């Protein structure tokens, strides 16, 4: 029997209809770190079991990590023990850039990947990563759940990178935090060295807002804040708290400039290597598990705020968001009008915003 340890070349897979709405992945058994999945004894009736690896940059408490655990359990159930998933958090399998390459070559099966990193693989993903694009979580999920709208984009990496984008999920709303002062207007951001994700659009955004962009890996931010290499960063409250940035940056300002989704990437080779029935069983789990990851993010935000406040963090919501939005509006228009695909997606986003306004 062929196992996932014996990775076969990419081949044309049976036709699949569309791309599932959303996803994530999970846990079980400690196996070789060098392969996307290895066979182990077990499975019902003593049969062969394959355990997929999922890389997550966040901690074990994060909703995506926990949704991944649930996916592993559910996948084992629906495949009668033939498949499961093991989650590796805290960048233990490498930085996002490193793991993307591992997913591409099939040595890691799954990863949760920030939208800015996926943008580096196909610039059209920038549509979901631009500042002040989504008005609400509900609008964002309505767009991400549109299979017809996303099919071309989500399958665009299969031929060139052997990566399938299974879904996108809500990953919070990003704001500015730093060790110097509250950020209420663009003038307050002037001269501050702010970590941004490693993408051209994020660097350009921060420049237009008046800060000094410092793109770097997420795992390097704490020490950079602690030593003064960085003045601050921009992220959501759970990342701010779980990565202990609230220990070294006491000012969190609600600029709410970004609502970037995270995406679940899967090695196309690994997906193709599954038999048709088990592959479909995996895909059928994706909407349910992904919805859980998005929904669980909401209470996780509140817990993170409480934790940070106990450490003395000052949260300020008296931010002139319209002033920030005005500065980056030309950038948004430029990126969105670059081609027909982006224009169509932007039209869908505007409609979703009208139907799902901010609370």
What CATH architecture of the largest domain do you see?
3-Layer(aba) Sandwich
The residue fraction in helices comes out at 40-55%
Gap between N and C termini:
54 Å
Instruction: From the 3D structure, determine the CATH topology of the largest domain.
Output: D-Maltodextrin-Binding Protein, domain 2
Number of strands: 12
Major beta-sheet overview:
6 strands, mixed
- CATH class designation of the largest domain: Alpha Beta
The radius of gyration over CA amounts to 20 Å
Keywords: Receptor, Signal
Pfam family, one: DctP
Protein name: Tripartite ATP-independent transporter DctP family solute receptor
Organism: Brooklawnia cerclae
Brief digest:
Keywords: Receptor, Signal. By secondary structure, the chain is α/β, with parallel strands linked by helices. The protein is built from 15 helices and 12 strands.
